[in-house]
TrEMBL record, chains A, B:
Keyword Lyase carried by entry: yes
Composition-biased stretches (Basic residues): 21-32
Keywords: Lyase, Pyridoxal phosphate
Name this polypeptide is given: Aspartate aminotransferase family protein
Chain residue ranges for the region called Disordered: 1-41
Modified residues (N6-(pyridoxal phosphate)lysine): K414
Composition bias type Basic and acidic residues, residue spans: 1-14
Cofactor(s) demanded: pyridoxal 5'-phosphate
GO MF, one example: aromatic-L-amino-acid decarboxylase activity
GO biological-process terms attached to the record: carboxylic acid metabolic process
Length: 641, 641
């Protein structure tokens, strides 16, 4: 880069590094947020200076590109560069005006995600390294569909692929990961692959030149072959050059059969899973939503009953999808028990099923136990220095089992603190993607040592800048317990502290000032960093509005307030317990995603604001006479946990 | 923004505005590329300064967010802001080192897309307004899944939606568009919707409370109801509250039937269409690839034969997909004739089919004829001032018919000159998306006047920064003949000029210096701005390598050279004519995407470099003795056009 690089280095002392640590529950000893991790007045100049250098590099490169043809010019009086339209396109005044308008609108109206009062959605604040890396790479507009258009950022995506394998616990070189536009797309792709894998053994049996590879398998086992065996079969088919033919046969059989198998997943699954099933052409009868426990995990005993019944009837199981941090509740399904169920089925029936984990939200929390050497620490009540999070043993057990799942969705743009768009899909065994590979006619030959992204991903093209941002976030924060672990531990601890505040029935003082005796109760102790709060009037007044409608009313009231005062308001979101209503039929609750750690004072403010908003909503209901069917709101959360 | 804003304004005079226009084929009168449209040394300071202001806004906003809770603090000695991990995360030295490494690698190794010698893929150079808008919005990390997380950029996406409707010719308020991660995803969504729409009438007939809505329709018509009638039916079902039930019934029927109907599309369709069919659960027999004309458009007579045969057999047609700028050839299918075919079928059978247009690459070229008032100009041989492009009348006719297609994929990140990721899907009638809407539990109630993006898009979450960039590009360049029209007309004109150079057999002088008499021939006159070149030895030596293997060899040779000298090399891509080999069995050809306008001198250099590279490849084959089956390469391109 420029000659001023060494001069700048002297200015690159750590700005805003934390000078002290907060004791348990005590006041903080420092006065700013995030040191050098997130934007802070002290790192603004550095951010600007780095970006100035990035722009210098970019403009220099651009000029070199434009001059590329010049040395070979036949006639030097000719001009070898592109000719572009004049008129409004060339008007930098117009550009400045557009950019100013946009910047001004964003600075006044953007959702204040970095605010301690923003607890609504899974949007993270972006570390400076990730922002700078995205900005830097985006200028060169790389498309990670092929190294031909993105030599640098496809390389970074391969590094990120290794990172994500380490995060999940998959073996490097055997596992494989890639980025996607988001969790939805990653889930679509995982289920697409699971569906296609499932149908390969039967198709092999129907092919004369492949039938010997699956000889002596019962129809039940053919329809539900353990995934590693299917992958071995794929390799054998490939060695015989039969993969295209058998793949085609499998597609025909899927079309002719009335089912591709049953998809089993928790009722708490994200709404995108219904979309996914419909997209893939599953019928409604192919999707079974399994009931939930009181803490909104999938009921593994109920799941086991369904799985055994399907296998007893020789039905194919398309896949079991486990949630690792459900979108509504942050609930972590007992993956270890689900995998135990699978092992039992393999022992008892010789039959198995594909396990995909939707850890779009929760996956990065495995870093809470990740040692620097990549191994996972055993369970301890307080696994982390500093954050104060107390993880549940069954959550630890689920994360410990993650490396045995066949694939995992994990989104860097959620808990990975990367900017949008950065979903991710991680495979235990990279051979799984060979089945869906589609060759492109437009790209040159790869070097063969790495899986090319274009032919092996559902979307093909993806922005290289996203890979650069994830790469930088992973390196700035660190994929271990002292990096992401500390960051996310703080988020979990914050949810736990809020849970405690909304579990103690004595702590409702502030609402009294609003004259209505309302109640905000945490529905259950959170597995991760999402909290669900039931709201409504106290028992004395609680026979007036039914179905937990207060939740929706309070949410709308809070959102309306935020629209007036975007920068300093409280932000929460809603959730619906349609699958498993709370006692009293409560379905609509408030949902808090704690994507940041809050100190005690901030917790006070959140609690105060929340109780006040709920109290106002309840009072408004009383005034307006909005009333419906009877409801009983329990006096304490103890009944639910 | 800052107090220095007005001071800055005086510096915002247009930089680099074009001072002259180039006459037909003559030398250019100015010496730089793109004026204020693309990066240029003269607009670097402005770019930097605008970005500095953007960063100032962002840091000020971020600080305000962090202080959001402060005024409400109960105990002012408390600290209300987030507490984040110390350690490596806070180390700005590490950040600077990461960013420098990335910037340095990109500036030395990034694909030189702005180079006049870069003619490989559809990657555009990015206008400064689009880069700045992306950078600006990205800092606030908006997710356009809901206005709750992206109040500003969802608003911009609604404006972009109107832009794209105008571009295609759809009626505002009736049509609707949204952005996607790319063309693949947009195509998946379009076909998903087409498949589901197709099955609604039969399901309505099977529902006791809805059957009267489709009374007196024959099975043929039920399976192939004209799309506007299906949309009216949806509205009627919705009015009766029957949409969820009938939708479920339709999904069951789709699963039970052995086909969802036949998908008909050209053999030139992008490889992503095979992926799409497999994803949606179509069987191989459900996809019919229709043969091509000599210029690689779909053969509409052959398509008509297939459509009529299916309807005569009472088979459902899932959809007909027309290409508007095929990925390999830039071929524009005769959409007007396809729509005429549909009208004929409706008249003759009362039966119809869904028409989707994959205009991911070509859609923006409709701007060549767009008047400022949004109307489309009639055909003229030279429709544009300045660019010199001569559009074919049948290409104009296809674009004139675009507004009659049911949906169109059009990617701002291709010819729209926006950065990745920005695909787009445009619907003629917004009611089509109601069928696939999935409500989220987490968001508040919308204001009801606009279609919310989250529930009505396949992906749901999408980066708001992409919307900001597309919005800015549209406004900087202008969606009319003098804006995008002029820009893309220049790209088409460049392809046409190269076609001419490689159609004249006399112009092969430069290769003689390499001692091998080779030939580079344009396969056919391009519809848009992609050129296919057949390469090989002259007739005297042409019985040595078969199947056009020279194309692959020359491509690999050119790519290898580029890897050594990334900034100043020639870049082209490959294409395969497996569906319709050229005379002599030639399948592998070179492919040039001219995403920029080149002046005569740059064209000289491109021609020289290309002929030299091909000559070297041919010579290498001669030396190495790589030989295979006989092949006859015609002496001139005339036989093919």
């Amino acid at each position: 880069m420029g000659p001023d690089r060494s001069a700048l280095r002297t200015d690159l002392r750590p700005h805003g590094a934390l000078t002290g640590r907060r004791g348990k529950g005590g006041p903080m000893r420092h006065t700013h947020s995030g040191g050098g991790l997130f934007p802070h007045p002290e790192n603004r100049d550095m951010f600007t200076e780095l970006l100035r250098q990035v722009i210098d590099d970019y403009y220099r490169w651009h000029a070199q590109c434009a001059e590329a043809a010049a040395p070979a010019l036949i006639d030097p009086t000719h001009e070898a560069v592109a000719d572009c339209p004049a008129g409004p396109a060339g008007d930098m005044d117009a550009v400045a005006s557009l950019v100013r308008e946009l910047s001004g609108r964003l600075a006044h109206q953007a959702t204040p995600v970095p605010s301690p009062l923003y607890l609504a959605h899974m949007t993270p604040d972006i570390p400076v390294a990730a922002s700078l890396a995205y900005l830097c790479a985006m200028l060169y507009n790389p498309n990670n569909v092929t190294p031909e258009t993105a030599p640098v950022t496809t390389e970074l995506e391969h590094e990120v692929s290794d990172d994500l394998c380490r995060l999940i616990g998959y073996q490097l070189g055997t596992g494989w990961a890639h980025l996607s536009s988001g969790g939805s797309s990653a889930n679509f792709e995982a289920l697409w692959i699971a569906r296609n894998l499932r149908s390969v053994p039967s198709a092999a049996e129907a092919h004369p030149a492949a039938a010997d590879l699956v000889a002596d398998r019962s129809p039940l086992v053919l329809a539900n072959m353990p995934v590693p065996q299917v992958l071995d079969l794929l390799a054998a088919l490939s060695a015989r050059g039969l993969l295209p033919e058998v793949g085609r046969l499998a597609a025909e059989q899927r079309r002719e059969a009335n089912t591709s198998g049953t998809l089993l997943l928790a009722q708490s699954a994200h709404y995108t899973w219904d979309r996914c099933a419909d997209l893939l052409g599953l019928g409604p009868a192919d999707v079974e939503k399994v009931e939930l426990t009181q803490t909104h995990r999938v009921d593994v005993r109920a799941l086991g009953r369904r799985v055994r019944a399907l296998l007893a009837n020789r039905q194919p199981i398309l896949a079991v999808v486990a949630m690792c941090g459900s979108s509504g509740e942050g609930a972590v399904d007992d993956l270890d028990a689900i995998l135990q169920l699978r092992a039992d089925c393999e022992r008892r029936f010789g039959a198995s099923f594909y396990v995909h984990v939707d850890a779009a939200f929760g996956g990065y929390c495995r870093s809470l136990w990740l040692r620097p050497d990549g191994t996972m620490a055993p369970f301890e009540d307080r696994p982390l220095d500093g954050s104060g999070a107390r993880m549940k043993p069954e959550v630890h057990a689920a994360f410990r089992a993650l490396h045995l799942a066949d694939s995992v969705t994990v989104d860097p743009h959620k808990s990975g603190h990367s900017p949008y768009p950065a979903g991710g899909l991680v495979f235990r065994d990279r051979r799984a993607v060979s089945l869906v590979a589609r060759e492109s006619m437009y790209f040159g030959q790869g070097n063969g040592t790495r899986i090319p992204f274009g032919p092996h991903t559902l979307e093909g093209g993806r922005p290289g800048a996203a890979a650069a941002a994830v790469w930088a976030a992973h390196r700035q924060i660190g994929l271990h317990s002292q990096g992401y672990g500390r960051l996310l531990g703080g988020c979990v601890a914050t949810a736990q502290r809020l849970h405690k505040r909304f579990s103690e029935t004595g702590r409702t003082g502030p609402t009294a000032t609003y004259g209505v005796d309302s109640e905000v109760i945490s529905c259950f102790a959170p597995d991760l960093n999402i909290l669900n709060l039931s709201v409504g009037p106290r028992e004395s007044e609680c026979r007036r509005v039914g179905g937990g409608a207060f939740g929706r009313l309070a949410l709308d009231s809070i959102l309306a307030e935020a629209a007036d005062e975007p920068l300093t308001s409280l932000y929460v979101s809603g959730n619906s317990f349609t699958g498993r209503p709370l006692p009293g039929g409560v379905e609509q609750v408030l949902r808090l995603c704690t994507m940041k750690e809050l100190g005690p004072a901030a917790l006070d403010v959140v609690e105060l604001r929340l109780r006040a908003a709920v109290s106002r909503s309840v009072a408004k209901v009383g005034t307006d006479g909005v009333a419906a069917r009877p409801v009983s709101v329990p006096a304490s959360a103890k009944e639910w946990k």
